[in-house]
Amino acid sequence: MASGMLFASVAQAQITVSLGGYTEFFAGFYDDDGVNRTTREFELETEIVVRADGKANNGLLYGAKVELQNSTGGSSASSVGTDEASLYLGGTWGRIELGDFDGAADTLKIYAPLVGIEQIDGDYGDFAGSQPAFGIHIPNSGDATKVMYLTPRFAGFQAGVSYTPESESQAQNVVAIKNSNNYKDWIDGGINYTGEFSGFSVALGATVSSASGQNGAVPLEDFTAWNVGAQVGFGGFLVGGGYVDADDFNTPTTGSIGGDQSVWHAGISYTAGPFAVGASYMDAEGYKGAAGDYNSDYKAYGVGAAYTLAPGLVVQTEVMFFDEDVVSGTPGATTTTNNDGYVFIIGTRLDF
């Protein structure tokens, strides 16, 4: 026992451990067409990030990252759980990551520049106007347990691929029964490029995501989705956007009216010293929302601003507008409902 403890002490002494994270507080004021809805609420998000990084004498980089986040939900009880956790190995040959984290498609994507509380990709949907399941991003395996390889960046280019055996399976959970999750054999991949030319910055990216639908309670179609995105910057300005073709993501093998799903988005931002302002727009068509929703359309747009009061401390605000048409029911017996409204948020964020 004593020798084991001595070994652990020596091993840990070679690794640098750091602690960081952030805390965000939002005050939201909102309105939509829902029945008996509230119109104002507070929201708090906190994440603690623990990192351990080491470098061996042979140049091998290695380490781990654990993200702990406060829970969300309607209960008065609060708890803290693991958001992401992974370990990595790296070197001149690239990087291998193992654990619970977003895969290659999410890591390598390029999308519209966003300011404030991230506008079309932000937290306004927590208050009203819930977005499509994949938002402005390509459908991906999320934080399910996976393996990922990223190449080193060469001449501005970097590529990667990740593999997830079972969707919605994380941490110590082992899926023992076939067809108990929505998807299996989820593969994410992509490539992006970043560079600068005559005062202009350029970022380009293309990603792909593919998974096999399982024959569970609601059998799902296999799908292959893809995404392209670009950003161009000059001075304090940044302009960009992207397009996602989500194929038959989350589509039942029978009974579905819908077909392909897609979303495009665009944004512009301007930064001058501690101040930044931006505007963005998204348009999603054919997305599947809750079970039984088909051929829905969703649009959202808004403006945001941020001001850095002190190192790590930012004041943020945004106003978002949304318009959603949802077709629900069963083939031959559908109804269409509309929900539109706005969300105004003001908040603070402290990174430490």
UniProtKB/TrEMBL annotation:
GO terms for molecular function: porin activity. It holds the Pfam family Porin_4. One of its GO terms (cellular component) is pore complex. One of its GO terms (biological process) is monoatomic ion transport. PANTHER family: MAJOR OUTER MEMBRANE PROTEIN P.IA (PTHR34501:SF9), PROTEIN YDDL-RELATED (PTHR34501). Homotrimer. It comes from Skermanella stibiiresistens SB22. It is found in: Cell outer membrane. Residues 4-325 form the Porin domain. This is Porin domain-containing protein.
